[in-house]
Amino acid sequence: MLCLSTARLFGVALTLTGFGLNVQSAAAQTTYTFDATYDAVSRVSSFITEDVTTNIALGDSNNAPFGLTKASVLVYTQTDLTSGSFRFSTNPAIFGLPGLPIGGITLFGSGENKLFYSVENGTGVFDFTTLTTRASNTANITGGEGLFEGATGTLTGSEVYQVGNLLVDPTSTVRGTVRLSGTIQVL
User: Are β-strands 152-162 and 52-60 bridged in parallel, bridged antiparallel, or unpaired?
Assistant: First the structure.
C-alpha cells in the first residue's frame, strides 16, 4: 500500500514538474493596437554629403495611447531635387555611409513606457506648388521599456511637413504632422 501511494505521489510530482516546465511556453503573446498623430518639428542637424543630411525631429501627441505622447527621431535623409523626391532611413549604410551612428525613433512620455523602432526605407516627395513634403514608411519595432520590454511589430507612418522656409534657410526648423499606426507584440 505504501509502495502504491509513493508511486502515485511520484507520478503526481512528475506531472506537476512537467507542467511547471511548460509555463513559459504557454505564456500568451499580447498584441496592442497603436494609432496616434504627432505634431512634429524637424531640422537638418548636419550635412554629410552634397545630398545626404542627418535630421532630428521631436513630436508631441494629444491622442497617443499608453502614455507615449512624445517622439524623438534621428534619421538620415537623401534628397534628389531634380526628381523632387527623398528617402530616409535610421541606417546610414543604406546611403553608403558605414561607420556613422545608427539613428532611431523613440516614443515616450512621463511614465516608464518607451517604444523603440527603426526605418529602413522611408520615401517622400516635394510638392513645389504647396511647399510641402509628403512621406511614408514602414517601421520595425526593435524593443521598448515598461509595458513594451521586448516588443516587436510594425508601425506604418505617414507625414506632411510645411517646408517653404527651407527656401530661405535650409537649416531652419520645419513643422508637420506625423501619423503612426500598427500593432505591437509583447511576450
Answer: unpaired
